[in-house]
Amino acid sequence: MADNVQFARMNGLGNKILVVDMRGRKDRVTPAAAVALAADPATAFDQIMAIHDPKAEGTDAWIEILNCDGSMAQACGNGTRCVVQALAAETGKKTFTFQTIAGILNAREHEDGTISVDMGKPVFAWDRIPLAEEFADTSRIELQIGPIDNPVLHSPSVMSMGNPHAVFWVDKDPMSFDLDRFGPLLENHPMFPERANITLAQVLSPSSLRTRTWERGAGLTLACGSAACAAAVSAARTGRTGRKVTIDVASAPLPARLTIEWRDDDHVVMTGPAEWEWSGTVDPATGTWQRDEAQPGSAGARAL
What we know:
It is a single chain. The strands form two sheets. The chain has an 18-stranded mixed β-sheet that branches. It is an alpha+beta fold. The protein has helices at about 30-40, 75-90, 180-185, 225-235; strands at about 5-10, 15-20, 45-50, 60-65, 70-75, 95-100, 105-110, 115-120, 145, 155, 155-160, 165-170, 195-205, 210-215, 220, 245-250, 255-260, 270, 275-280, 290. The chain has two domains: about 5-120 and about 275-290, Diaminopimelate Epimerase, Chain A, domain 1; about 145-265, Diaminopimelate Epimerase, Chain A, domain 1 (Roll), CATH 3.10.310.10.
């Protein structure tokens, strides 16, 4: 199995992540491998974060992100925190600069173990999100699901955080909605030519939200970092909260909270934890894998 590479099973607030070390290689994790890994209960994931050699000067790595259906993702904040934790354990570094198809991400591991990721600037222009129809104001667009006179969800705030997001505002616990039924319909709605991440957001206070997300290409997940950023920005943009909020991720194991700050320079910074679970080796072409004998807590177990 000489073609195998190291990988780590990790999570960010329950968001299941596989961090795969592709440095020093020219090949990629294939969609077929992603689908095979997702189908195995032991390696089922929400996103694969494949670490490649840097393409641009001044960056630490090129990160390729795959969903569990084998499709490509532009951004994954929870996965980026996992990459930072893995590389920090390996190198001793605390700050990193990554390049993805969505752009440059800067990240830092703090002394308390939490990790901040600069997710960049939000995009509100309808044709860059993108939407299929022109809207001058994307803080509230005409889109609903359910009866016309009594819709279940309606008037979402839409934007891009490197990937398309629609945030529907709800007055009760997001867990009380049948998102596994509505999610696929909204993700693939004609309004979203590149599909979209669908989030239900409840305002708890002027500085806190509760969210639940149906992820594009992944389905219901325990947490979604870029969706938390989209909800926080949309809440501030519509006057529901201030520019710094705590996100209570409804479906994730408790305590499951992210701090999101939409800074004055327009950058969105997400801070939260990452957790290493176990490591192994995997064939990036087929998804065939085996688990390392090293157990949690043994020397070097958390490094790729």
